[in-house]
Amino acid sequence: MRSSRAVLLPGTASDEVFISAVFAGPLAGAGLALVAPASRSVREHVEALDAAWDGTPLVVGGVSLGAHVA
Length: 70
Hints:
By secondary structure, this protein is an alpha/beta fold. It has one domain. It has helices at about 15-30, 40-50, 65-70, and strands at about 5-10, 35, 60. Strands 2-1-3 form a three-stranded parallel β-sheet, sandwiched between helices. Strand 1, helix 1 (about 15-30) and strand 2 (about 35) form a beta-alpha-beta unit. The longest helix has 14 residues, at about 15-30. The chain is globular, with a radius of gyration of 11 Å.
């Protein structure tokens, strides 16, 4: 089963606006819809990943702190 969504988490000095501006186009070109939550803390990042998962595969990643959580 192939994923159709990518959840990318921001770092401590970035936000969902930055994530969308940088990654939405390239991900769309790869056939993936971007999910960029407005999470900030480790707890919020984990909650955002839990909320995004619907039982199907997800591509997960992030910038800085978000990458560590992913």
